[in-house]
Design a protein that fits this description.
By secondary structure, the protein is of the alpha+beta class. The protein has three domains: 10-280 and 410-457, no CATH class; 284-406, no CATH class; 476-574, no CATH class. The strands form six sheets. The protein has a six-stranded antiparallel β-sheet, with helices on both faces. A four-stranded antiparallel β-sheet has the order 18-17-16-19, covered by helices on one side. It has a three-stranded mixed β-sheet with strand order 13-12-14. Strand 6 and strand 7 form a beta hairpin.
Length: 575
């Protein structure tokens, strides 16, 4: 059945207008918006240009891990993580609740979304999430928009003061990663899953043991269990939060909604593969990694160092302090080199009280073949007693935490959802950008994912303008604040001095805050910015905008404000 969105329906209009602002809360309420952003990035010319960068020379001859690491480094070099409050401005809880209250249980929203009171991750709860994000200077009714940027907007941060490179928040980076892995790495979209939690967004790439993208970085299985500060940060979301959304080329699944559009087999395969990625057997190396990860238990152990037939002892916490500033690693083959860097006065000639010698642990784990943690715990309880070590309570607590370290059980959406697969798009790594763009346009009559992709892509000659106008007039507070106090003519003069260059190619349009943030825009985009200010700050009534493809005129009261445009779009709009 051909799709024909009914914009007289409030939910439909809110969803399609949200394809232009793509805030975190909008994606939570409308999870079918997440993957269209990936497809919009794939249709964009920006990432396709990366293929010609010398950085990616001969990448097709390389292994999958090499491809992922190469793309990771490129993203780290060209895009920073940005989550400030100034970029996309603020809104009010009441405003957003009124937008969504007819579509979702608000009590569920408050328990699941960081902006509405979610406290699922103890780390953020302990540091006060509002203070962490800089919201403590506002009343609790004020929340940020945190809009997810397209690749164009991410790249355009280089024009913004104090940046110099591209930037984006975590959902933007996950969508960028997915598109880049497909375009540059030629990794099929079927193997890329976007994972959203209330406070974070990352991807799981189904290659070999699996790879997680985490903001700008990547995490392999070995990295997940290496106990470093970076892996501790990477682990936090999946260890502490529900997975609210899993998005895939075939559809999505949301832990709140009873119906899932993702292919059931694809979701089950993803679930099993992710769970395998998040668990590992006990070994001597993994035990050391655990002690590096968990600060509490280092003082239960000491290292025996023998020099010229003399025994010396040192606390494990001291060794890890040195490791932190060394290129050598205590758990790897460079242990001896690390020990040589430690000052002589750090060693004791007598054993430290109430500590187990770490080599005894390693020898047992390497030679016993035992993998049952309860039996291993019992062995070390007996070993501690026989060595006059009174750490029984600490040993029991250690093994409780060790079990959590070795196995993370992700809180995924229920497998018993009502799976109603949507029409799946067939996009392959062998297609060109133009072929993909034409294909998505051809499927927009039957696939809502394809249609929403055109909205997220801003393909204005292929879509209705009503959702774009709604987003432009209601959800662009930064420009309004920036122009505050300006008269009609002053605002026009200021906007007119901006470079007349759009960050979007072809017949695609930036929203007003994008024009303001990046200080540039096509004449048609400038006219929307001016209209937004006139309507919301100066309360000008009966605004009219006319564009004939080359010129734009904004009529405001008895005045006319003219711009030139190269977008080639023809429209007459009454605000």
């Amino acid at each position: 059945m051909p799709l024909n969105p009914d914009f007289s329906d409030k939910k439909t209009l809110e969803k399609y207008s949200s394809a232009f602002s793509l805030s975190d809360m909008e994606i939570f309420v409308f999870p079918d918006l997440l993957y269209p952003l990936v497809i919009a990035n794939i249709m964009s010319p920006v990432i396709w240009k990366w293929r010609d960068d010398p950085w990616f020379k001969d990448i097709l001859k390389k292994t999958a891990n090499y491809k992922v690491n190469r793309i990771k480094q490129y993203i780290m070099d060209h895009y920073v993580f940005n989550l400030d409050l100034e970029t996309w401005g603020l809104t009010q809880k009441e405003t957003e609740i009124n937008r969504f209250k007819d579509f979702i249980d608000i009590s569920v929203l408050e328990k699941s979304n960081a902006l509405f009171g979610y406290e699922g991750d103890k780390y953020y709860y302990d540091i006060d999430i509002r203070r962490h994000f800089g919201l403590d200077k506002y009343t609790t009714d004020i929340i940020p928009y945190w809009k997810t940027e397209t690749v164009e907007a991410m790249t355009a941060f280089s024009f913004k003061e104090n940046f110099g490179t591209g930037a984006g928040e975590c959902v933007s980076l996950s969508a960028l990663y997915a598109a880049a892995l497909f375009i540059v790495g030629r990794i099929p979209l079927e193997d890329i899953f976007l994972i959203g939690t209330p406070l974070h967004s990352q991807n799981f790439i189904n290659i070999k043991e699996g790879v997680l993208t985490n903001n700008r970085r990547i995490v392999t299985k070995n990295m997940w269990f290496n106990g470093t500060a970076m892996s501790a940060k990477a682990r936090r979301a999946l260890e502490n939060e529900k997975v609210t959304i899993v998005a895939h080329l075939s559809g999505h699944i949301h832990y709140v909604y009873p119906t899932a559009t993702i292919n059931r087999d694809a979701f089950l395969k993803f679930s099993d593969k992710l769970k395998d990625f998040l668990k590992i057997d006990i070994s001597a190396v993994n035990f050391i990694n655990f002690l590096r990860y968990h600060m509490t238990f280092k003082k239960c152990f000491q290292y025996l160092h023998c020099i010229n037939n003399h025994n010396y002892y040192i606390g494990l916490e001291t060794i890890f302090e040195y490791e932190h500033h060394s290129k050598y690693n205590f758990a790897e083959g460079s242990r001896e080199a690390l020990i040589q860097e430690i000052e002589d006065e750090e060693f004791s000639l007598t054993p430290l009280d109430n500590r187990i010698i770490i080599q005894d642990v390693e020898t047992y784990l390497e030679n016993s073949g035992e993998r049952d943690l309860d039996k291993i715990q019992e062995h070390f309880l007996n070993h501690a007693k026989s060595n006059n070590c009174n750490n029984e309570d600490n040993i029991r607590l250690l093994f409780q935490e060790l079990k959590k370290f070795l196995v993370t059980d992700p809180q995924l959406p229920d497998r018993d959802k009502n799976f109603e697969p949507a029409e799946s798009l067939e996009i392959s790594v062998g297609q060109s950008r133009e072929e993909i763009l034409d294909y998505v346009k051809s499927k927009a009559n039957t696939s809502e994912t394809a249609l929403l992709s055109l909205y997220a892509f801003r393909q204005m000659d292929e879509i209705s303008w009503e959702p774009f106008i709604k987003a432009a007039m209601e959800r662009n507070p930064v420009a309004i604040e920036g122009l505050k106090g300006k008269s009609k003519d002053e605002a026009f003069e200021l906007i007119s001095t901006m470079p007349s260059v759009s960050v979007y190619d072809g017949k695609r349009l930036a929203q007003p805050d994008e024009v303001w943030n990046f200080s540039r825009g096509d004449g048609l985009e400038k006219a929307f910015l001016l209209a937004d200010y006139y309507r919301n700050s100066l309360h000008v009534q009966n605004l009219k905008l006319i564009t004939d493809g080359e010129q734009v005129i904004l009529f405001a009261d008895d005045s006319e404000y003219k711009f030139t445009t190269s977008k080639g779009l023809k429209k007459e709009i009454l605000f």
